[in-house]
Each structure stands twice: as structure tokens, then as C-alpha cells.
UniProtKB/TrEMBL annotation:
GO terms for molecular function: ATP binding; heat shock protein binding; unfolded protein binding; zinc ion binding. Participates actively in the response to hyperosmotic and heat shock by preventing the aggregation of stress-denatured proteins and by disaggregating proteins, also in an autonomous, DnaK-independent fashion. Unfolded proteins bind initially to DnaJ; upon interaction with the DnaJ-bound protein, DnaK hydrolyzes its bound ATP, resulting in the formation of a stable complex. GrpE releases ADP from DnaK; ATP binding to DnaK triggers the release of the substrate protein, thus completing the reaction cycle. PANTHER family: CHAPERONE PROTEIN DNAJ, DNAJ HOMOLOG 1, MITOCHONDRIAL-RELATED. Residues 133-215 form the CR-type domain. SMART domains: DnaJ. The lineage of its organism: Bacteria, Bacillati, Actinomycetota, Actinomycetes, Propionibacteriales. Binds 2 Zn(2+) ions per monomer. Zn(2+) 1 binds at C146, C149, C203, C206. This is Chaperone protein DnaJ.
């Protein structure tokens, strides 16, 4: 065999079914493509699932232990010898070996209690909650333990009884005659579906499943600095398994809504502030509301900041305020708040204002200026305009 499933799961060859299950869950939490950063996480997870599929199935595990390939269906049964007949219907190779060496019936009944699946819920956050963090109530609709039978599957006071068809073995056998003798084959009992017991009075609430669907609300702590696509892992908050089995895990996927004023760029926040032409020419100070103004947990002093507009400021001038951006999700500190000024030219003037501007233009010899074409390299003016207004 090219793969050692025991090595993939990290268990020894004598591991019990419970040890294999625990090893799988522990390993899956590390290599799941949604949480693992490795590029080959998907391949690792696929290989891990294959290993668990084999070792959790007594039949496939037996084939693997004997050196066979449990994932190759053609190796698990015969369709004939040399194309000349033999076994017309085919049968499980493990059943043949079991019959020859007296191991039939070793699989036994399967448990009604099984592990539940993981669940995923998507949550949209406003920008300030993603930046500063919050504890948010999340509505989840999953399978939970049946409140009436507590996962047992039967009406209160009733107990499962041994299946009369298979006598509690969970499987039934039949004998097939062949040229090498009688072959005993086994299959899950059709009456009890392999459980070895039947429930005479199934629970009216869950129909014997041991679980029901229910909507509930849980509190999820969202750390400061999260971004769209981040998933929060909550162990044991997913789907309860059949028979009231252990619950899977819950993944909360975050999506951050766009903001009308601020644009996020990594750990930085960007905004555009409009200033009148005269203020840009003469210089001034403007008060700007920060993102903290939308966060109830902020200090009053942090909800606005006074920003100096230097005399002669041009459209596209950017200044940066350190420590006013997004908290770093991994590590300390915050990014910066970038403020880009957009100088506004007045469009409505009265006679007095128009005369004053004419006087200013005359003083500066700008009544009939020649066009000054921008010849800068790089992204240029148009690149800046696109970047500014698309954000």
C-alpha cells in the first residue's frame, strides 16, 4: 500500500474506534481548508477523510490490515476467473476471507449514536463592529438533542428491544455454494438497519432520530480587526448527531458591509474630505468625525479630530493620522487614517464675489492663462482620480 492510514491519522494499529474518531476530529481542525493556511490543505483534508473512511469501517479496515486496497472496489470482489464465469454476482472479498478463517460476524451491530456534522452561518457586520470588535447574538438553526426522549429515540418509559431477525447481531448471513465450498456472506439486517435493536415506540417528537431542528441564539465574540472572509470556530456548536450524538463544530463566516465615508485598505482607513477653494488657498483647520463616533465603547475625545489644512493645499493631497486606523488582528497597534483633500471650486457667485475673483486673477496675471498639461509619470492624475472616487 502507498498510503499508511494509521500514520495519516496519527494512531497506532491497535487504536479503538473511539481513539480513531478523536484523532480524526483533532486532525481535521488543523488541516480543514477553511482554517488551515497551507496551500495543500484541501489535499491533506481529502487524504484525512479517506483515512477515516477506511479505519472507521471495520470491513474496510480489515481489508487494509491484510494488505488490500479498501478503496478499490474491483479488488474487493470477484467478477469471474479469466473471464470464464465462476462467481456471477460477485461478493465482498472480506466475506470470503472471514468465511475461510472463521471471522464472520465480527463486525457486530452499529451504534445509533453518531457524530454530528459541522455547520456554517454567515454574518454581516457594519464597519465599526469589524474594526473595534463586539459580542454579537447570532441566530443558528441546527439539529439539537430531542427534548422529549433526550436522544434515546423512544417514547419516555420505552426501551429498545433486541431485533428478532438478527438476534442483536446487526447483520444477517446467507450461504452461497461455490466450487471451493460454501461461502458465508453478511449484510446489515434489513429489519433493524444494522443497529441490533428496534424501537417499538418511536418518539413522536423526533420519529426515533434522537434529534430535532431548532433555532437558537448564541453570543459570539468577534475580535477587533476582522475582515470579510474570516471564520470564527466554535467547537461543539454545530449539528447534533443521530441518536443525540456529539455535536459538530460551528463556523461563523464574517462579511463586512461597505461604509458611506470610510474605505478600508488593509489596516488603514481612507476618507476624502472636501474643502473650499479659498480655505485650501489660505489654509485652515477642519474638524472630522472619526469611525469611533459610531462606536458606543469609544471615548468622547476620540470621536473627532482637528486636521490642519496647509495653505496652498491641492486636490489629491493626503495626510496620515497614525494610530487612527484598524487594530491589527494579529499583533498590537493600529493602522493609520488617511485623509485625502478634494478642493472645491465655487459654482455660484454673486456680483461682489465675482468681482473679487476678477481682481485676484488680475493681480496674479491669470485672466487668460495658458493650459498647463500634466506630464507626470506613473499613474498620473487620471489614475489618482479613479482611485479616489472608486473608493
Amino acid at each position: 500500500m502507498s498510503k499508511d492510514y494509521y500514520d495519516i491519522l496519527g494512531v497506532d494499529r491497535e487504536a479503538t474506534a473511539e481513539q480513531i474518531k478523536k484523532a480524526y476530529r483533532r486532525r481535521a481542525m488543523k488541516v480543514h481548508p477553511d482554517v488551515a493556511p497551507d496551500e495543500d490543505a484541501a489535499d491533506q483534508f481529502k487524504e484525512l477523510n479517506e483515512a477515516y473512511e477506511v479505519l472507521s469501517d471495520p470491513n474496510k479496515r480489515a481489508i487494509f490490515d491484510r494488505g488490500g486496497d479498501p478503496m478499490n472496489q474491483s479488488a474487493a470482489g470477484f467478477s469471474g476467473f479469466g473471464g470464464g464465469g465462476g462467481f456471477s454476482g460477485g461478493f465482498d472479498f472480506s466475506n470470503l476471507v472471514d468465511a475461510m478463517f472463521g471471522a464472520q460476524g465480527a463486525r457486530g451491530p452499529r451504534s445509533r449514536v453518531r457524530q454530528g456534522q459541522d455547520a456554517l452561518v454567515r454574518v454581516q457586520l457594519p464597519l465599526h463592529e469589524a474594526v473595534f470588535g463586539t459580542t454579537k447574538p447570532i441566530k443558528v438553526d441546527t439539529a439539537v438533542v430531542c427534548p422529549k426522549c433526550q436522544g434515546r429515540g423512544g417514547e419516555p418509559g420505552s426501551e429498545p428491544v433486541t431485533c428478532a431477525t438478527c438476534n442483536g447481531n446487526g447483520e444477517v448471513s446467507q450461504i452461497q455454494r461455490s466450487f471451493i465450498g460454501d461461502i458465508r456472506t453478511s449484510q446489515p439486517c434489513p429489519n433493524c438497519r444494522g443497529y441490533g435493536t428496534t424501537i417499538p415506540r418511536p418518539c413522536g417528537e423526533c420519529s426515533g432520530e434522537g434529534r430535532v431542528r431548532s433555532a437558537r441564539t448564541i453570543s459570539v465574540r468577534i475580535p477587533a480587526g476582522v475582515s470579510t472572509g474570516i471564520r470564527i470556530h466554535l467547537e461543539g456548536q454545530g449539528e447534533v448527531g443521530p441518536g443525540g450524538g456529539p455535536a459538530g463544530d460551528l463556523y461563523v463566516e464574517l462579511h463586512v458591509a461597505e461604509h458611506g465615508t470610510f474605505r478600508r485598505d488593509g489596516d488603514n482607513l481612507e476618507m476624502v474630505v472636501k474643502v473650499p477653494m479659498t480655505a485650501a488657498a489660505l489654509g485652515t483647520t477642519v474638524n472630522i468625525s472619526t469611525l469611533e463616533a459610531e462606536w458606543d465603547g469609544s471615548d468622547e475625545a476620540d470621536r473627532s479630530v482637528a486636521v490642519e489644512v496647509p495653505a496652498g493645499t491641492q486636490s489629491g493631497t493626503r495626510i496620515a493620522l497614525r494610530g487612527r486606523g484598524v487594530p491589527k488582528l494579529r499583533g498590537g497597534g493600529r493602522g493609520e487614517l488617511g485623509i485625502t483633500f478634494l478642493v472645491q471650486t465655487p459654482t455660484r457667485l454673486d456680483d461682489r464675489q465675482r468681482e473679487l475673483l476678477r481682481e485676484l486673477a488680475g493681480e496674479r496675471d491669470e485672466m487668460h492663462p495658458e493650459a498647463d498639461v500634466h506630464r507626470g509619470g506613473g499613474k498620473g492624475v487620471f489614475g489618482w482620480l479613479k482611485e479616489t472616487f472608486s473608493g
